[in-house]
Structure prediction request, 262 residues.
Amino acid sequence: MSSQIYKTRIMNTLKNLIISIITILCLSQTAQSRTFGLFIGLSEYNRDDVTPHQSSYNDAVDLYNLYKSTAKNGIFLLLTNEEATTENIIKVAKRHFSHAKKDDTIVFFISTHGHDGGVSTYDGYLYTRQVREIFHNSKATNKYIIVNSCHSGSFNTTPEETSSQSTWSNMGNIAQNGRSNVIILTSTRHNMLSYTYVGENYNSHFVSSLLNGLGGSADSNSDGIITIGETYDFIKESFKNNTDQTPQMVGRFNRNTPFIIQ
Prediction:
């Protein structure tokens, strides 16, 4: 065999190897799980019965930016103020989360006023049954609901239905199978208020703690991965001396699952 033929075969083998590696990498990228996030914050309302807080807007924008910079394979949407009508929130959430596949993650965050039974939108209210339908129909494995509002621990279907039977803690059935991680993280209990810092550039107490934790402070074992358990433990520790506000996390989940899937 001539040296030229030998070199040609070596080159062809290397080319085929490179092509195979590129193909594997492309397939791996295609198969990689994705995160679909919807972040909602209101500092303006088309109503006279609520007092606006700039912090609710800041909460959504800052958490949206954190996810965009951390979850590399994600698609994130932001709704604020007049965009956050009840109808538009439901429409956008249904459309956005319908793209999620089995191994994906969906995140629904809202910061606004709340009451014992729901949360305020720009023009009305949003109730558990509306979110439950959206989340139950999603094929995603990981489903995160994060609510920052007064009385967020009790999120009922209608203003008249205020029994504990319809609270967030009973939304574990939105998992399509037992392998799903379903997290409902709320800023306070059903009978408590949710507090905020005053000023144009401030966040609520709860979201300030959440941002700190996900920004690295919750990584208790310094392994570079912030888990669901670490996140909640960090938030609880942040509020341990606060008797007026107690965040809570309920659902069905593995504490070792990363809070933000990277």
